[in-house]
Amino acid sequence: MICTQCPLQCKALRSETEGRGRCGSPYSPRLARAGAHFGEEPPISGSRGSGTLFFTGCPLSCVYCQNHEISGLKIPGKRVDEDALSRIIDRLLEQGVHNISFVSASHFTEPIADYLTKHPLPVPVVWNSSGYESLESLKRLEGLVQVYLPDLKYAEDALGRRLSCVPDYPELALKAIREMIRQTGPWEMDSEGILQKGVLIRHLVLPGFIENSLRVMDTLEDELPKGQFLFSLLGQYTPMHALAEAGILDAAPSLKRPLLPEEFERVWDYLSFSSLEDGFVQDPSAAGEEAIPAFDGSGLEP
User: Fold this and answer.
1) Under 8 Å between Cβ of 213 and 202
2) Could you tell me the pTM of the whole model?
3) CA distance 224 to 275
């Protein structure tokens, strides 16, 4: 296909063998791991976990990527057709997971939308993304996705170009989030406190870029309808040693270290005086490479 699934509109002829475009991916979805995941916010993970599918490849090239092992296709992942995807999801549902979560799947929107159209799921579908989405792709997901988990990484275009190598990140992410809110309406939870529909916006605080976090919160207050979304402030930034050793973090040396307590306290204090009342805070104690799933192909067996 001539690919226009993400805002980069690279128009690569994505096939199984060549023409993989900016995301580095063929047309058919590829997975690095599937399983019940307990590391998300409480209304996502709950007591039984979120049935999480980790896809390989990504249109962004974040220099600090916490999932860098699979975002750049260093681990190529396993190709999954419709039948294989059904088997994987059925196994997760049998485990009693609260939802099925598609993580970093934006560059596979077309085949996943086709799948969900043919195979409606009995639990909420969660779309966990960078926030860098095209409106056309999101409209393909309307009625198929009940819960959106977008990032809002940056408040300045220059920072998006510097740290994620994409143009117009704040503008495009805000447009995407508005579309997500339009599709789902206000957030709703069930009697167990599990999110059934709505938008939960995440922001990871980056060491040395505290002003960006403050401006992201200002942007959410100023640009989005109040009471229509949840906000999650993430303090568990983990410096990736492999990226530092490769020199990838040299352009932003502060990303080689963990978040300082005083940095996180400043952001948390700012949040406490904002109008962003509905949401969650994850403090830096949750940081560490051991908290990142092993992308070893588990859960993908025939």
Assistant:
1) no
2) 0.94
3) 12
CA atoms within 13 A on the CB side of 85: 25
Phi, psi (degrees; rounded to nearest 5) at 43:
-75, 0
- pLDDT for position 116: 98
Which numeric CATH code is attached to 30-291?
3.20.20.70
The answer to whether 105 and 130 have CB atoms below 8 angstroms apart is no
Q: Side chain identity at 223, as an amino acid letter?
A: E
CA distance 209 to 211: 6
Mind listing the pLDDT tens digit for each residue in 268-287?
Answer: 999 999 999 899 999 887 77
Is residue 62 pLDDT above 80, yes or no?
Answer: yes
The upper half-sphere exposure of residue 257, i.e. CA atoms within 13 Å in the direction of its Cβ, equals 9
H helices of the chain, where?
42-45, 68-71, 82-94, 109-118, 135-140, 157-164, 169-184, 210-223, 241-245, 261-272
**What's the rounded mean pLDDT across residues 31-51?**
96
